[in-house]
Amino acid sequence: MIYFLQGEITRRIKIGFTTRFIHSRMGSLQVGSPDKLVFLGAHPGDERTEYELHNKFQEAYSHGEWFNESHELTQYIEQRCIHDMEVAHSVDSLVSSGAASYEALLQLDYKEINERYMSYLVNKLG
Question: Of 22, 6, 15, nearest to 47 (Cα)?
């Protein structure tokens, strides 16, 4: 999953990839950060997606996987991401399993996404 975190004071945005829960990754990063990190959004993707995004926003590059806040980057996050961490995990599971497309899920509200995810789990376990 691709995630976007922002430093509350520096306003720098991390574009990262994780196979773990975002809570866990965010906790690991928070320990080493003097700045409070805020979850901005996430969407399905892999290491290649992360690399492509780093290239796409290279004009805003700061250091490592951190980027300066820019109109293009914040617009991308607003338009292409799920902004609720729990819903983002549900979306990632649905998309990675092939149960739904990301574009179709973006058309739904968070309640509908969670209903689809619960139905997916019931069918998977049943």
Answer: 15
